[in-house]
Structure prediction request, 117 residues.
Amino acid sequence: MAGIIESSPAHTKFSRYDIRVIIKFSVILGKDASCIHKDLVTVLGENAPSIQTVRKWIKAVSEGQDDMEDEPLPSRAVTACGDANISKVLVSLSDDKRKTCEEISTETSMSRTSVEF
Prediction:
């Protein structure tokens, strides 16, 4: 059929970002969730997002979200294992190699978790 993209390996290499942009574009065209989901399943097959995911992104677009990138995940501060903290631990251990993590944490004002790493 003319105008329909057949599902093939070449057409299923869409990133999450690509899929979200397609959803955003479809919302602008006035398509509803079931229609958008059906289109995605036609092209992506089992790699298509669930209808719930499609609805979530439709809601985000409808509420004015322009950025289709993933939100950064919360993680440990990059400086937790930095050179400065490693030096603090080494200096603390130079006096007594049998100090506990709790003692080093108190002495260096670092969290116990950071000391353990």
In short: The chain has two domains: 9-62, 78-116. The CA atoms of residues 12 and 47 lie 8 Å apart. Residues 78-116 form one domain. The two ends are 59 Å apart (CA to CA).
